[in-house]
Amino acid sequence: MAKVQTKDLLEQFKLELVAGEGGLEREFIMSDISRPGVELTGYFRYYPKARLQVLGKTELSYFNELSSEERIERSNRLCTDITPCIVISRGMDIPVELINACDESDVPLLRSPYKTTRVVSRLTNFLEAKFAPFTTMHGVLVDIHGVGVLITGQSGVGKSETALELVKRGHRLVADDSVEIRQEDYDRLIGSSPDLIEHLLEIRGLGIINVMTLFGASAVRSLKKIDYVINLESWDEKKQYDRIGMDEETIKIIDVDIPKAIVPVRPGRNLAVIIEVAAMNFRLKRLGVNAAEEFSSRLTKMIDQEKTSVDKGVDYD
Amino acid sequence: MVEKSVVVNVEPGLQSGPASEFVQTANQYAAEVFLEKGNRRINAKSIMGLLSLAVAKGDEVTLLSDGGDAEEAVDALTEFLSKEE
């Protein structure tokens, strides 16, 4: 995971550096943000000093009501040697005591022209993305009709060949062989390709091909949310494969459960078509149409009807 | 699960030539083999994953293997990575 420093924030957002330039190399160790309201009243016992501090209108107007000594004391206690930075919102004027304290202790003091809630949400999003749990998986990620399908399976089972066929059918390749996965929020997995092998596909016998130059810009995509995992495995005669599609299996990646299907591979099975249809069927399920369930309820109804008609006896009218 | 740390000694690193040799060696074994560099783990039997890591000489990597001939696989790959040309 890359380090996040205060200067990254400065580059990313329209922030103005007011004081504490010496601390721009400070590093963030967590994504949480603190609004030190109670701390300004003098209660510092639980002050989360390693967090980014945001001072909004309420905090600053309270601060301005304090006596000069109190302001100096509180400012000094706010500026610890591990505080990554203090951000002032709404482009407000900053009390000179705070500026001095920041300069002395090298805590960067930044000013944003936007409203506090906006500043907090944008900073949180940025930091959360940077601190997101990360993993890499062996597989191929393809965007099929808007569904992010991660094709996994043993080396040599035909993942890349299937991806090539899918690209040929107009779908988009995100990553081949090695997929970098970040968890955003608590329920979203975003997959992307390592920079070095972006747009590339390895086909045994051909070597490495560039999908973007071969098929054009519409054949690739740099990021995609992972919705569905399809595991390809060699056909095992003894194993039971799903024949109806009623049960939804899942696989856990980082902290998220993703629906998963196992597709057995046998020569002559057109995997690309199967995966394409699996993705479409997945979409249909998400839209509320479940073919397997509908069929099953129709079957149950039919059996029930037959039972009742047997009970009543057959009507010959 | 067999696990072993290796310092890469291949000059100048795992470029396409040595990388495909490495993958071929890994594919001779039935066991699953993974290679880890930093916080990224890839399947040692796939060339693209290996190339995406850009392993250079002097890098420390970890070989992980699971399966029947895991021990042999790790030994052979360790020898490949640590031998001097």
Automatic annotation (TrEMBL), chain A:
Gene3D superfamilies named among the record's database cross-references: HprK N-terminal domain-like, P-loop containing nucleotide triphosphate hydrolases
UniProt GO BP: regulation of carbohydrate metabolic process
InterPro entries in UniProt: HPr(Ser)_kin/Pase (IPR003755), Hpr_kin/Pase_C (IPR011104), Hpr_kin/Pase_Hpr_N (IPR011126), P-loop_NTPase (IPR027417), Ser_kin/Pase_Hpr-like_N_sf (IPR028979)
GO molecular function, one term: ATP binding
Residue segments, region Important for the catalytic mechanism of dephosphorylation: 264-269
HPr(Ser) kinase/phosphorylase N-terminal domain location: 4-127
Pfam families given in the database record: Hpr_kinase_C (PF07475), Hpr_kinase_N (PF02603)
Record-listed E.C. numbers: 2.7.11.-, 2.7.4.-
Subunit details: Homohexamer.
Described purpose of this protein according to its UniProt entry: Catalyzes the ATP- as well as the pyrophosphate-dependent phosphorylation of a specific serine residue in HPr, a phosphocarrier protein of the phosphoenolpyruvate-dependent sugar phosphotransferase system (PTS). HprK/P also catalyzes the pyrophosphate-producing, inorganic phosphate-dependent dephosphorylation (phosphorolysis) of seryl-phosphorylated HPr (P-Ser-HPr).
Protein name: HPr kinase/phosphorylase
Gene encoding the protein: hprK
Automatic annotation (TrEMBL), chain B:
PANTHER family in UniProt: HPR-LIKE PROTEIN CRH, PHOSPHOCARRIER PROTEIN HPR
Domain HPr: 1-85
InterPro entries: HPr, HPr-like, HPr-like_sf
Descriptive protein name: Catabolite repression HPr-like protein
Species in which this protein is naturally found: Pelagirhabdus alkalitolerans
Listed PROSITE patterns: PTS_HPR_DOM (PS51350)
Pfam family, one: PTS-HPr
